[in-house]
Design brief:
CATH architecture of the largest domain: 3-Layer(aba) Sandwich
Structural class: alpha/beta
Distance between the termini: 22 Å
Shape: globular
CATH superfamily of the largest domain: Glycogen Phosphorylase B
Order of helices and strands: EHHEHEHEHEHHEEEHEEHEHEHEHHH
Number of strands: 13
Number of helices: 14
Radius of gyration: 21 Å
Length: about 425
C-alpha cells in the first residue's frame, strides 16, 4: 500500500480531527508518517503511526487575534500568524518529505507553508479543514461576521456590501504576504493568486469535518470539496475521581485550546449556574490551570462545579443536558455529534460562523460576549435544553456523511484517479 505523510499546524484542535482519518488509512494497510505537536508524539506512536514533532519554532508563534477590535483586523491578525509560521513549516515539511518519501500528502489546512510545498511537489495531496472553510458559495454570507443567510435581492445586496467591506479589505492586506510566502516556499515555481478563495482551493481535495444540516448546502463547491461529518476523536484518558459521583445532568463548559482570552465564559457559567440543578464541568486547556487546585484567580468554583485543565469530553457529554462552548468547531460539534444542544458564546476566529450555523440548524442558542452575564447565560442554557431535537438532526447528518470511511475513500480515489487542479476539479 501507500506511504502517507500527514502534517498538522501546532494545535490540538487540528490534530485530533485528523486522527480518525489516519487510523482508517492505517487499518486499510497504508503506512502512516505524522509530524505534529511535540507533546502529542508519544500518544500518536501508541496508535501505530511513525510520529515526530514539528519545528519547535512554530509553537512560539502564537495567535494574538483576540486583541483585535473588529472582524477585519482579527482576520488580518490570523493571516499574519499563518504566514509567519510558513517560514518554518515549509522547510520542516520539505525535510519530512525527503525523509519519508511519501506517495500521498495529507495536510492541515492551516499549515500554509507546508501546503505550498505540497502544491509544488507534484504528488497527490489533500487538506483537512476542521473548521468551516472560507470558500465562496452562492447564498452563503461572506466568512467572518457570522451573518444569517438572507435570500433574494436584499440578501445578495447585503452580502455584496459585506464582502467588499470585510473580505476584499482583508484580501488587499493578506494576498501580497501570501504570494510572497508562496514564492519563497516554492522557490518561485508557483504563480501569484488573486483571492483567498483561490488560495484555500489549491489542493486537489479538501476534506471538511462537518456536514448538513449543520453546514449550509454548497452545490457549487464541486466534487473536490467533501464534507464528511464531524470526527470527534479524543485520546484515552482517566476520568477524575469525582466523575462517578455525578448525580445530576451535566452542563459542560469548554474554552479554546489556543488561548483567546475566553476565561470569562468559565467564570460566568460557574456563577450563573451555581444554584441550578446541574453539575457544571468546565475545561480550561489554555489557561495553565492544572485542575481545581491550580486554577487560582480564574474562577471561584461553587459546590456544583468542577474545573479541570482537561477531562475527556466524551464520557461527560454522555451525561450532559447542554454544552456551553466558545464556538470552536471541535467542542461544538463534539456535543452535537452526541445530540447534545449547545449555547455558543463566540469570542472570535471562526466562532461567529459556528454560532450562526447552530442557530440555523435550531440546535442551540447564540449568546454574544457583550451580553454575557450570569443571568443571560442561565437563561440561554434553559432555552438550549429545548433544542435537543435539532441537535439530534445534526448528529444524524454527521453519520450520514460517512465520517473517516468516506474521507479515506476520497483519499484513495485521489491516489487512483490522480486529481489535478484545485479543490472542486478532478480529471
Amino acid at each position: 500500500m501507500s506511504t502517507v505523510l500527514a502534517y498538522t499546524s501546532p494545535a490540538i484542535g487540528h490534530l485530533f480531527p485528523m486522527v480518525p482519518l489516519l487510523l482508517e488509512l492505517k487499518a486499510r494497510g497504508h503506512d502512516i508518517h505524522l509530524r505534529t505537536l511535540p507533546g502529542q508524539v508519544a500518544a500518536m506512536r501508541e496508535l501505530g503511526f511513525h510520529a515526530a514533532p514539528v519545528d519547535q519554532q512554530l509553537l512560539e508563534l502564537e495567535h494574538h487575534d483576540y486583541l483585535a477590535k473588529s472582524v477585519r483586523t482579527a482576520l488580518a491578525s490570523s493571516v499574519d500568524t499563518f504566514t509567519a509560521r510558513a517560514r518554518f513549516d515549509a522547510p520542516d515539511f520539505r525535510a519530512a518529505m525527503d525523509d519519508v518519501g511519501p506517495d500521498l500528502l495529507l495536510l492541515d489546512v492551516n499549515a500554509w507553508g507546508a501546503g505550498t510545498v505540497a502544491e509544488s511537489a507534484g504528488l497527490p495531496w489533500a487538506t483537512v479543514s476542521p473548521y468551516i472553510p472560507p470558500l465562496e458559495s452562492k447564498g452563503t454570507p461572506p466568512f467572518g461576521p457570522g451573518l444569517a443567510r438572507m435570500h433574494g435581492p436584499l440578501g445578495r445586496a447585503r452580502d455584496a456590501v459585506v464582502r467588499r467591506v470585510v473580505i476584499a479589505a482583508v484580501e488587499k492586506v493578506m494576498m501580497p504576504g501570501i504570494n510572497r510566502m508562496r514564492a519563497d516556499a516554492s522557490g518561485g515555481q508557483l504563480p501569484p493568486l488573486q483571492t483567498a478563495d483561490a488560495f484555500f482551493r489549491r489542493a486537489p481535495l479538501m476534506l471538511v469535518t462537518t456536514a448538513e444540516p449543520f453546514e449550509y448546502p454548497h452545490p457549487d463547491w464541486g466534487p473536490g470539496v467533501r464534507m464528511i461529518g464531524a470526527l470527534p476523536w479524543e485520546p484515552p484518558a482517566e476520568l477524575p475521581a469525582w466523575f462517578d459521583s455525578i448525580d445530576k445532568p451535566v452542563v459542560l463548559v469548554t474554552t479554546s485550546s489556543e488561548y483567546q482570552a475566553d476565561e470569562k465564559l468559565v467564570r460566568t457559567a460557574l456563577e450563573g449556574l451555581a444554584n441550578e440543578p446541574f453539575i457544571v464541568v468546565a475545561t480550561v486547556p489554555a489557561s495553565g490551570a492544572a485542575g481545581t487546585a491550580g486554577a487560582e484567580g480564574l474562577a471561584a468554583v461553587p459546590a456544583n462545579g468542577r474545573m479541570e485543565r482537561f477531562v475527556p469530553h466524551g464520557p461527560v457529554l454522555e451525561r450532559a443536558a447542554v454544552a456551553v462552548t466558545h464556538g470552536g468547531m471541535g467542542a461544538t460539534q463534539k456535543a452535537l455529534a452526541r445530540g447534545v444542544p449547545v449555547v455558543v458564546v463566540p469570542f472570535g476566529r471562526d466562532q461567529n460562523e459556528v454560532a450562526a450555523r447552530v442557530v440555523a440548524a435550531d440546535a442551540g442558542v447564540r449568546l454574544r460576549p457583550a451580553k454575557l452575564t450570569p443571568e443571560t447565560l442561565r437563561a440561554a442554557v434553559h432555552e438550549a435544553i429545548g433544542k435537543a431535537a435539532g441537535a439530534r438532526r445534526v448528529a444524524a447528518g454527521y453519520v450520514a456523511a460517512g465520517g473517516a470511511v468516506a474521507g479515506v475513500d476520497a483519499l484513495e480515489d485521489l491516489l487512483s484517479r490522480k486529481y489535478t487542479g484545485h479543490a472542486g476539479a478532478a480529471q
